Amino acid sequence: MKLMTKIAVRLTAAASAALVFAVCAFAEGEAAATDAASPQMTAGAMLLQLVPFIGALILLYFLLLRPQQKREKEAQAMRDAVRIGDEVCTAGGIVGIVLKVEEDTVVLETGAERNRIRIKKWAIHENITQLEERKQAERERKAARSNGIAAAAANNDGKKKKKSED
Length: 166
Prior knowledge:
By secondary structure, this protein is α+β, with helices and mostly antiparallel strands. It has 2 domains: 71 residues, no CATH class; 83 residues, SH3 type barrels (Roll), CATH 2.30.30.
């Protein structure tokens, strides 16, 4: 066991010495290159090193920050569109009907006992009434589209029959 420990220590020491030698040789080579290089090449090399960093920042913006800002804008628009009579759900899970809308607060009526709760607008998580209206509008749009497709197909069949009769 002691022999293995001694070998590991010697290998580690040898590896660290080789690493120090390589770093020193690299630093000397770079110093010689920068002494011979003009200031323009040094600035160009520096800009070339910044390109991946700038690319990563742009990628971060488009993958993380921009979608988050879009979601926040939609949530704020939903909160601003709350009206009396809407059924809303808060971030805490309380479901109620809006009785009064003020500048930054909303009064909700919850439960069978008709309890009234005053909450901040930022606590509204979703407007259930708006969601149901959107779903209904989507169903109507799909139905109209499918009826339109069926009507268009029937019209096309009728036109084909008329042409074949002539």
